[in-house]
Design a protein that fits this description.
Blueprint: H1 10-21, E1 27-34, E2 44-45, H2 49-57, H3 63-71, H4 77-84, E3 91-94, E4 100-101, E5 108-113, H5 114-119, H6 121-145, E6 149-152, H7 161-173, E7 178-179, H8 182-188, H9 198-202, H10 207-217, E8 223-225, H11 231-247, E9 254-257, H12 262-275, E10 282-285, H13 291-299, E11 306-309, H14 311-314, E12 324-331, E13 334-335, E14 350-357, E15 360-368, E16 376-377, E17 380-384, E18 387-388, H15 395-407, H16 411-414, E19 423-426, H17 428-445
Parallel strand pairs: 6-7, 6-11, 8-9, 9-10, 10-11, 15-19
Antiparallel strand pairs: 1-5, 1-12, 2-4, 3-5, 3-17, 12-13, 14-15, 14-16, 17-18
Helix pairs in contact: 3-4, 6-7, 6-13, 10-11, 11-12
């Protein structure tokens, strides 16, 4: 997006101008974290870090950007000249994509001269909030599916074109098998799948004619949508086409159900195909699925091999946003915090240490970055001096990391309703510094002794 650097809130620029006017150019550290869980959540999945790194590496105001800022009439010439030469020159620590993290833990921390670090706020939250929300929702769907395949069907109802692409990426890294989104397949190498719509069926005079036409066009990838008029009748017609394909040495891959009582219908459809000798025809279900509907259907005995999951996953419908914040935690070497009710922050540059018990995630400790603990450190440095420290990871690498990580999260934390939270505490060094700074702030700002 050409205008990325201007995709920010105006107050980021007015604060930057005030920093500039008052000669505030020292390093600042901002921490990105989520304050609380949405309902029925007890974990988040890290996603979006690569986009943040790419954005910060390319951060610059071009001539058109400068012309627009000048036309706003808000900013002095010397500040605009400063922005024209501004590049991100700082460092970034982040939790690698595909890993699980918990509330209050920094998913990433940015340290840079304060103007650059401040101006990055809006887009960093925008990039990470969406992808964490979707990756977490997708992980819940994967858990509910109990090993069955899931395909992203969300593109037509995601909140904009860019969101559609990011949803495909985020759901794939969290365990989906593919997407219907052709552009996402091109950009990220995600397997793409798709069959037919009801309009294809109704455009033919006979449903069987539609099935035959599709089978003749795609004999190696025939999946028939069988619920346009009546699912059971459609299944019998699909059996007829499957027989015709078999005579030519071809094979019907599957059928798709998109409406009705899918638990009962799937069992009826399975019996129809088994009785006809087509035991290996897959039954694919779509139509308003999310983790809750998938779970209910399987609890009811639904005989489904794979699901198309669309709108509710792509918009994370039951939790469409996170309470994500990007807050200053250190300036010019001085730890800082907020004391606002319900929005207190943790001071200083941090690290998160993870501890395991019987190969399962047991608890996390949020620590100062220079604390040394026995646990596994989660935050990795990904940028230094404004440059990335390693090439972008492949999506397959991230996906494999998630799969291994998700196995280490106990089922009680994955429950779709009322999950138990993993314990997250403060390490001794952070706890003491936090207490000290809170006391100093209260004394200085509130007159408390």
């Amino acid at each position: 997006m050409k205008e990325t650097v201007l995709l920010t809130d105006q107050y980021e620029l007015t604060m930057a101008a005030a920093y500039f006017r008052h000669d505030m150019f020292s390093d600042a550290t901002f921490s990105l974290f989520i304050r609380k869980y949405p309902q029925d959540r007890a974990y988040f999945v890290s996603a979006g870090l690569e986009d943040v790194v790419a954005y910060l590496e390319s951060f610059r105001f071009d001539d058109e950007d400068m012309d627009h800022l000048e036309s706003m009439g808000l900013f002095d010439r010397d500040f605009l000249d400063y922005l024209a030469g501004l590049r991100f020159s700082g460092s970034v620590y982040g939790i690698p994509e595909g890993r699980v993290f918990f509330r209050d833990e920094p998913i990433l921390e940015v340290t840079a001269p304060i103007i650059g670090a401040q101006l990055a706020e809006t887009l960093i939250i925008n990039l990470v909030n969406l992808q964490v929300s979707v990756a977490t929702k997708a992980a819940r769907c994967v858990h509910a599916a109990r090993g069955r395949g899931l395909v992203d069907f969300s593109l037509r109802r995601t909140q904009g074109m860019d969101a559609g692409v990011k949803v495909a990426r985020s759901s794939y890294l969290a365990g989906f098998k593919g997407t219907s989104n052709v552009l996402a397949g091109k950009l990220y190498g995600i397997p793409v799948s798709g069959t037919m719509a009801h309009s294809f069926v109704t455009s033919f005079e006979e449903e069987t004619d539609a099935f035959r036409a599709f089978a003749e066009t795609f004999p190696e990838n025939t999946v028939l949508l069988i619920d346009t008029y009546d699912t059971v009748t459609g299944a019998r017609k699909a059996v007829e086409v499957a027989g015709e394909m078999a005579e030519k040495g071809e094979k019907l891959r599957g059928v798709r159900l998109d409406s009705g009582d899918m638990a009962q219908l799937s069992k009826e459809v399975r019996k129809i195909f088994r009785d006809a000798g087509f035991d290996d025809v897959s039954i694919f279900a779509s139509g308003g699925f999310d983790e809750f509907k998938i779970d209910r259907l399987l609890e009811e005995g639904g005989d489904i091999d794979a699901f198309g999951v669309g709108t509710k996953m792509g918009t994370s419908a039951d939790a469409p946003y996170t309470d994500m914040a990007y807050k200053l935690v250190q300036y010019d070497g001085r730890p800082v915090l907020k004391l606002s009710s319900g929005k207190k922050t943790l001071v200083g540059e941090k690290q998160v240490f993870r501890f395991y018990q019987k190969d399962k995630i047991h608890r996390d400790l949020i620590a100062l970055r220079d604390e040394r603990l026995e646990g596994e450190p989660l935050l990795k440095q990904v940028m230094k001096g404004g440059k990335r420290l390693q090439d972008p990871e492949s999506l397959e690498t991230i996906r494999q990391r998630f799969e291994k990580e998700f196995e280490k999260l106990d089922g009680k934390h994955k429950s779709l309703e009322g999950p138990e939270e993993v314990a997250v505490d403060l390490a001794p060094g952070l706890r003491e510094l936090q207490k000290k700074v809170v006391h100093e702030v209260k004394e200085k700002e509130l007159g408390e002794s």
